[in-house]
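hey m, so remember when u said the tokens were messed up on ur end? i reran from scratch. heres the input so u can diff it against urs
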Amino acid sequence: MMTPAAAREREIALQVFSKTEVLTLEALADAIVPGAQKAGICHFLDHHLAQAAEDCLLMIKYMGLANEAYPDFYQAGIENARIHAFNRFGKTWAELNPTDSTILLDEMANDRIATWKGAPASFFFFVLRSDAADLVYGTEEGFAKIGVPYAAHIAPKSSW
């Protein structure tokens, strides 16, 4: 057992995502929720996508998608985002400056990407933002970062 950040730091092999997907996903998630890359967003998502549906703790579980479609949902969204960054700016997500990345995020969040295929871009944005925020801010330490008192209904026995 280790945190997603520790798994990322130790370069633990991923079960779902390819190296190309990781490059896009880390930069995209970090643009949406700063700190997501360092917190291990790819390992966090990968771990939960490799689990049985009842053990998955990702937002997608609560959105009415069949559990066997979870990996496809994320992979399609990542690929759409990768293609859009390249088509719009000729760059990967990791190469984008903050202004260009903000433009792309706005287009995603508002479904203004004509070439986007599959689930709406705004839906993918919502789900990924929720997962990234959960990872970065869903702990006592995360709450402290934003100055909000941690008031869990059932407090964890130990920190992550």
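this time it looks ok to me. The chain has eight helices and no strands. if urs says something different then somethings off w ur setup not the seq
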